[in-house]
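Researcher: Checking consistency across runs. Here is Dihydroorotase again:
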Amino acid sequence: MSIFIQNITAVNADGIQKNVDILIEGERITEMGMGLARNAARVIDGAGLTAFPGFLEMHCHLRDPGLVHKEDIVTGTRAAAAGGYTAVCCMPNTKPVTDSAEVVRYIIEKAKKSGFAEVLPVAAVTRGMRGEELTDFAGLLKAGAVAFSDDGMPVAEDEIILAAMRRAKELHALLMLHEEDLAKRGNGVVHDGENARKAGIAGIPRAIEETMTARDIFYAEKLGVPIHICHVSTAGSVELVRRAKANGVPVTCETGPHYFSITDEKILDRNPNAKVNPPLREKEDMLAVRQGIADGTIDVIATDHAPHSEEEKAREIEDAPFGMIGFETALPLTVTNLLCPGIIGLTDIARLLSKRPHELLGIAGGELKKNVCADITICDTNEKFVYNKDMIASKAKNSPFLGMELRGRVCYTIRKGKFTYDRQAD
Ligand SMILES: NC(=O)N[C@@H](CC(=O)O)C(=O)O
Ligand SMILES: [Zn+2]
Ligand SMILES: [Zn+2]
């Protein structure tokens, strides 16, 4: 099928082209420029809309295999496509853990057959994510893993993280690190601050994230190995990464939309949907995260989409699992809380949600131009809407943003020249 997108604002990380036409034939963008001849099976009027290179999610949980009461590859990628994502990296805390070539192949094959986005599996660093023995990095890469992480758990032992870094360096593989000193977390469930005390909920201090972040930056510098820090949430973590980058340490990092949009005030009413790990922090942290995004300290916005069933999230906040869904609110929260207040511009959205994730993973894409694969996210950055449950494509509904008015919506997602999301047709 051919698609003609007429008169749209096309945004790349390095610039904006207004009033351009984009012709898609087969899987590729075959023409891009002003005043092209309109000749295609499907025509999209792009007036007032913005086209970005397809978003790449670096960090999400699809829960498949084994935890499909929360989400599966079909529902998860459907939600990803509705959020503008053409590709997603899924974390290995599945059942069984994604620590073997068989599970990696299962994920890739199921996604190919029935998914709405490219799925790029992240394999476990240690067998069973138990933090004891390294997995077969070479075999997992060969099977199609794109990076390594024990996300959900830190790699606690120094000898093990050092061995993982040495192996990653040999194989040019990326380590994505969940930074948390579990031994010290105790029974904490929300950020350790005034609001936790008011609500009478046990807290998780910032230091639990920051000490592990500092340890891993220290080792990455010593060994000269690139590491990527997952879900940075505190002002201190942002500062650690900023200083490390200034000193030439090969460290990159991501944050989630919730860390630049809301604070731990959201837990005052004990809402289990506001329980996430690392926890929602205080205003000064939220502002530091925004600043880190603006000055390039934070490379990537990754949602950490972490679906849980309604039954699991109906428990008391102490007993409900950590995590919130994120695909379908990522662009709206970015537009509402970063673009509208002028903290970032449109080109930064292309960089944070597409270009940088492609670069960090060493995957082609992240650019809109002639002759590249037609992975395109088309948005209305002015549309306002109230986010409600009926809109959610994910199997899970655990979002703290329900009922909020947001600005910026995905209209269409095109992957390899085919619509994977079309709001008009929904
Ligand atoms: N972020 C979360 O609160 N939960 C994640 C695990 C993780 O990302 O650490 C999950 O798998 O549910
Ligand atoms: Zn994590
Ligand atoms: Zn995660």
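Researcher: Does this match what you'd expect to see?
Model: One thing to look at in this run: The longest helix spans residues 207-223.
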